[in-house]
Amino acid sequence: MADIVPLEEAILRFVHDGDRLALEGFTHLIPFAAGQEIIRQGRRDLTLIRMTPDLIYDQMIGMGCASKLIFSWGGNPGVGSLHRLRDAVEHGWPRPIELEEHSHAAMANAFDAGAAGLPFAAFRGYVGSDLRRVNPNIATVVCPFTGEALAAVPAIRPDTSIIHAQRADRDGNVLLEGIVGVQKQAVLAATHAIVTVEEIVDDLAPPSVNAVVLPTWAIDAVCVVPGGARPSYAFGYYDRDNVAYVAWDAISRDRDRFLSWMDEHVFSAPASDPAATVPHTRELPR
Amino acid sequence: MADIVPLEEAILRFVHDGDRLALEGFTHLIPFAAGQEIIRQGRRDLTLIRMTPDLIYDQMIGMGCASKLIFSWGGNPGVGSLHRLRDAVEHGWPRPIELEEHSHAAMANAFDAGAAGLPFAAFRGYVGSDLRRVNPNIATVVCPFTGEALAAVPAIRPDTSIIHAQRADRDGNVLLEGIVGVQKQAVLAATHAIVTVEEIVDDLAPPSVNAVVLPTWAIDAVCVVPGGARPSYAFGYYDRDNVAYVAWDAISRDRDRFLSWMDEHVFSAPASDPAATVPHTRELPR
Amino acid sequence: MTAPAWTAAEMMTIAASRQLAPDDVCFVGIGAPSAACNLARLLHAPDIVLVYESGTIGTRPDVLPLSIGDGELCSTALTTVSVPEMFRYWLQAGRITKGFLGGAQIDRYGNINTTVIGPYDRPRVRLPGGGGAPEIASSCDEVLVTATHAPRTLVDRVEFVTSLGHGRGPGDRRAAGSTTVGPTTLITDLCVMSVDAAREFVVESLHVGVTRREVVEATGWPVRFVSDLVSTPAPTDEELTTLRDLQARTERAHAAR
Amino acid sequence: MTAPAWTAAEMMTIAASRQLAPDDVCFVGIGAPSAACNLARLLHAPDIVLVYESGTIGTRPDVLPLSIGDGELCSTALTTVSVPEMFRYWLQAGRITKGFLGGAQIDRYGNINTTVIGPYDRPRVRLPGGGGAPEIASSCDEVLVTATHAPRTLVDRVEFVTSLGHGRGPGDRRAAGSTTVGPTTLITDLCVMSVDAAREFVVESLHVGVTRREVVEATGWPVRFVSDLVSTPAPTDEELTTLRDLQARTERAHAAR
Fold first, then answer.
1. What is A3-102+157-267's CATH number, 1.10.540.10, 3.30.10.20, 3.40.190.10, 3.40.1080.10?
2. Is B118 within 8 Å of A118 when comparing Cβ atoms?
3. ipTM, interface predicted TM-score of the complex
4. Please, are residues B143 and A119 in contact by the beta-carbon 8 Å criterion?
């Protein structure tokens, strides 16, 4: 059964230095507030796992939380580079970061295998790609019936996965809908799972009996964080703040400007202040 | 794009002697009307594939349509045996039937692999089971990262899959909800797919953006057959006719009684007569 | 003695329901397990999570289903997933604490046959097959077995191992590649048995009015009894009333259709 | 000559949109491909199926998305599936007829680098990475490539093969294990190239006002031209109006947020 607790407490309990951590969200429902709380708590040596590390991982990497990144596409969607990630990779600032680089298909299959309790995933991929050359975690398995050689990657098994969802009921059952990415898989693949939600409701009222619902007993903590996915979006609650994504490009290009932005928008804003979870929309230069 | 055609035409076009055929439905939405049309058209030497062959496969096997059955549980749910299946296996009546026998986990994974275009599925299964001994299509693959030995089965790739769904729109997009079994996988694993539906609607109006929807271009034919899943049920349309399932036990125990029941309820009832698609509820002894 | 005020089948269901804890996540089969699981939910385990292989998770049926995929299971569930997801994400991944199994033949080590009586290629009786059982047996934390007590069911040796119990004794299960506990308890209409150090079912409690001799005669192997054999507590009024109400509701609902 | 009444970027998008047929199922990337695909849908291919890797199938956005997972894509889609399902059931299974790719470096054989400039372990420029591209390149029936024409983009040899095109020529793709056609067409802001028998991009049409020399100077390999080189048809009024309306709607929508 999931505990419904403040975000600070959930991060304190389930995120530790050295952990393998997945904050998932495929453009939609990105758990920004949770990532910023991890930054405030000063976690270090994290292995960050995510198909599409975007602004929140750029912030965590820029603040030195991570020693390794497992990913398949690291950019600012529709805008360009993640400058803090690039600075870490290209110049080791603020610390070097090890990369384990995959394709989306590989990561999606690896999360699926993790959720299914399998040790690896087989798929038809990496055909002729140099990624095989630089990533020793890309292997081959042979179909015992046809002899076809398929790519294989290890299952992803995070210590803790964190996602943001639209709502939970009072028992801690969680519903998410819209673009759901690999969030269900990330939660089910992890030892512990934290879900931040827009709201707690009496009745989850799934729109369909087959809606994406995560039972409370498959989750450790639910935290009420309205706006906790901003500047990404929560389908049915608020839109994506595209301006904030564009603005991040200039903020993140310069180390000092980045640090002062973090100081103002993350460190001066406790997670328990609901408004603080939406700093981008309040404060970003336009 | 799926054609919206009468059931007779869909079966004529996409079901041929010798085909590998999956009529799927896990207790819910079983395509009875389609199976009975196949019987009326006198198809032979079919390889019938299904996790839970139940009454409709009992009828098809009893009428001599099948030379092979790939399955994981062949019973009358909540009642007992499938007597026509047993008669074929135990006494070769009306013709012998070859069995390829799996577990549910294996079949579910094999349909999933078929839908994913993979040649095989790996899973943790058949531990210590004698099924390995009698089914040469159960192999082993070794995880290239951990060395764990896993069970492997070939992907299921039917020539044609047939399912029943709640509704389609005028373009032939199909929605099903409730207990959805492996129907999506069966359709996507097959070369051709036929879907019988309760009704055609102007707007599919999925209850959730993540509802189980099959695009028209992934299907060959949609046939309007109200009650086409009876005596199984269609969530939101009609309930399971449990009495018919119980009654089938006595009907199917005796070869002559079975044949006369088929004559009365299947051969005398053309598929184009909507009432004929619900013979069980009209005629079964109670 | 006078006949007790309940049937042997009721006693079996009630004894099975007592095996379930409030925080269990159960993989439920049809028949006795379904009645036992829902009885536990209506009594001492209101938050127990019932999972049916048709894909329904956290189901709370008002009446017992006749099939594993009745609409009632879906409409009262927290959520319903596809069958591949059920077997991959929920069963295989190790999220189920207790699985219920039954079978045409069960031996002292909890090996179960639901496939065939006689040679596989020329069966005397072709049974329905394994269904979910082979992986329920290996993936659930623990397996509970229910059976009507009879020599043809509780056999000396199953003719076909559909679902692995403890093989032929200690170590066999692990050697076969399993990391879970396997069968721990066998609940019949005569008694409750538990697995001992030799990985064999031994009788630990006799239902009210049942004698050792009856159990010996109804068991296909030379059955043993624990030294501190006890009597299964009689059904309470609450247990009986709740079970009978559930079954009466179920009969009314199914007859109406 | 006078400047044409359209920009080079508009010409590129319009030329790309013409590559799409009414019955195509397209795997759409962000930027030029998204504009081209939606333009085709608004013009000659109203029933074209647009699939975005975020899981949206049959999406019909009124405005162009800024990201691959904008809410607009989901709310106008026929259905939205999980990302594992998208890559397994829809892309890997071979249900996509045309995939669009771009990249920081593209060579004459359609090999694409979106990973790194310089050594992998000590990159001069760390690019975003492969994302969906490696499997889009191998699983779609056919791959269309778009790029702004420049020597640093259309290079003699990519420094890192993120996504396989035709390797170093005929047979390489099949030898690597691919059974699909691979890149067939490269659409730039200067011209349209198609793959010839040597599996090399050669110029088949020049956009209005573009010279052979401009193309030669902007291409990082010794580019060849087909003998029957033609001029790309100029954008029609309908194409231009539809594209500009789409982009104006898009700008208004994104500025409002």
1. 3.40.1080.10
2. no
3. 0.96
4. yes
Rounded Cα distance, B98 and B101, in Å:
10
Q: Is the dihedral of CA C214, C219, C220, C225 positive or negative?
A: negative
Annotated domain spans of chain A = 3-102+157-267
On whether both C132 and C182 belong to a single domain, the answer is yes
- A182 to D139: CB separation less than 8 angstroms, yes or no: no
Same domain, D210 and D155: yes
Q: Is residue C256 assigned to a domain?
A: no
Nearest CA in chain A to C91: A116
pTM of the model: 0.96
8 Å CB contact of B215 and D79: yes
**What is the C-alpha radius of gyration for chain A, rounded to an integer number of angstroms?**
18
Q: What is residue D241's three-state secondary structure?
A: helix
CB atoms within 10 A of CB B273: 9
Residues C74 and C128 in one domain: no
| Residues of chain A neighbouring B118 (CB-CB closer than 8 A) | 122-124, 150
D6 with D44, same domain: the answer is: yes
Q: How far is B134 from chain D (nearest CA, A)?
A: 30
Q: Based on the structure, what is the number of domains in chain D?
A: 2
Residue D151 lies inside a defined structural domain of this protein: yes
Containing domain of residue C199, as a range? 102-224
Instruction: Give the gap in angstroms from C-alpha A197 to the nearest C-alpha of chain B.
Output: 19
Contact, C66 vs B240, CB < 8 A? Answer: yes
Going residue by residue through chain A (286 aa), what tens digit of pLDDT does each one get?
899 999 999 999 999 999 999 999 999 999 999 999 999 999 999 999 999 999 999 999 999 999 999 999 999 988 999 999 999 999 999 999 999 999 999 999 999 999 999 999 999 999 999 999 999 999 999 999 999 999 999 999 999 999 999 999 999 999 999 999 999 999 999 999 999 999 999 999 999 999 999 999 999 999 999 999 999 999 999 999 989 999 999 999 999 999 999 999 999 876 555 444 434 333 332 2
Q: Give the side-chain half-sphere CA count within 13 A for A52.
A: 28
Least Cα separation, residue B286 to chain A (angstroms)? 33
Q: Is C62 left (phi over 0), alpha (psi -120 to 50) or beta?
A: alpha
